[in-house]
Amino acid sequence: MQGVDLSPIGLFLGASVVGQAVMAVLFLASLWCWVLIIEGAVSVLRLRRAVRQARAGAALTKSLSAVAAAGDEEARRRIPGETVGEVRSRISDGMARAARELLTRSEGGLPNLAVIASVAPFVGLFGTVWGIMSSFAAIGQAQDTSLATVAPGIAESLAATAYGLAAAIPASIGYNRIGAAYARLGQEMASFVEERALALIARPAQIAPQIAPQVMPEVAREDAPRRRAETP
C-alpha cells in the first residue's frame, strides 16, 4: 500500500472536489484572519501611542485632531444661561462622540475575526462529515473494510478539521486580545477627553464670553482635591 502524503498540499491534492473546496475556503479565511489581526494590532498600537503622547502634552496627531476639533467647536458654541458644569459636560459629550467614531473606524475588521472564529470550525466539520461519507461510499463500492479502502476519505475528513482549526484558533485569540486592547484604549481615550474638556474651559478665550468669569473659580475648585491628593 502506498503511503498517504500528510502534508497540507498533499492532503489537498488527494481530496475530492468538495473537500478541496472546503479546504480552499478555510485557507483563504485563515489568510484573511492574519491580515485582520495584523491590521488591528497596528491600529491599536498607533492610536494608543497617539493618546498617550497627547496626554503627556505633545502635539495632537492627525488621528486625534477630529476629537479635539469637536471639543473646540462645542467650547465656542454659545447657549444662554448655561453653567460652567453644563459647558464642560457638553464639551465632553461632543469629544466622546468623536472618540467613539474614531474607535469604531480603527477597529475595522475586528468583528470579522469573531465570524471566522465561530464559522470556521463548522465549515471544517462539514468537510469532516463529507470525508467520512466518502469512506463509507468506498466501502460499499469495494465491498472491503480494509484500511486501504477507508484511508483516503478519513485523511480528507481529518484534513478538513485541521484546516478549520487553523483558521478558527488564531481568529479567536486575535479577537479576544485585540478586543481587550481596544477596551483599555477606550478608557485611556475617556481620560484624554476629560482632561481636554477641563483644559478648554480653563482657557477663557476658548469659551463663550458670558460664562468666562465663572470658569476659573469653578475649575480651581474642581482641581483642588486632585492637587491635594498629589501633594506628598
Q: Nearest-angstrom radius of gyration? A: 29 Å
The domain count comes to 1
Shape: rod-shaped
Main beta sheet strand tally, sense and closure: none
Count of helices? 7
Secondary-structure-based class equals mainly alpha
Helix content: over 70%
What string gives the helices and strands in order? HHHHHHH
Uncertain segments: 205-220, 222-232
* Average residue pLDDT: 79
Number of strands: 0
Give the termini distance in whole angstroms.
81 Å
β content, as a range?
Answer: under 5%
Describe this structure in words.
With 232 residues, the chain is an all-alpha fold. The chain has one domain (8-230). It is built from seven helices and no strands. It has helices at 8-14, 17-55, 62-76, 84-107, 110-142, 147-201, 212-230. Helix 1 (8-14) packs across helix 6 (147-201), helix 2 runs antiparallel to helix 5 and helix 5 runs antiparallel to helix 6. The longest helix is centred in the last third of the chain and has 55 residues, at 147-201. The radius of gyration is 29 Å and the shape is rod-shaped. The chain starts with 7 loop residues before the first helix and ends with a helix.
How would you summarize this macromolecular structure in one to three sentences?
The chain has 232 residues and is mostly helical.
